[in-house]
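Encoded backbone
================
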Amino acid sequence: MNEYEIIPPVNEIDFGATGVAEIIQNIKTLLTTIKGTVPFNRDIGIEDSLLDKPTPVAQTKLTAQIINIIENYEPRCEVVSITFDKNESEGILIPKVKVRINDEHL
């Protein structure tokens, strides 16, 4: 099993992506999608209600949401760890998600 660190955003969408590139692109898309904005699947994404929460609260809730959406929408990998780059004075949290991709999916 191989591990990869994923940091949003999605730079460009590669409609022909396969293997690891496809999985990483899918996870970046999940991390940058606001819940309720995807037609026909309003459950995909991160809740925007976290925007006004104190940093420690937002970080805890965001961690739980990230694990949940990756487990539900990208089952070819598992979350190993989640850390954050943060700027508390500006209220910015950028997740760094480390995932393990099962070799059978490569």
Helices lie at 19-31, 55-73.
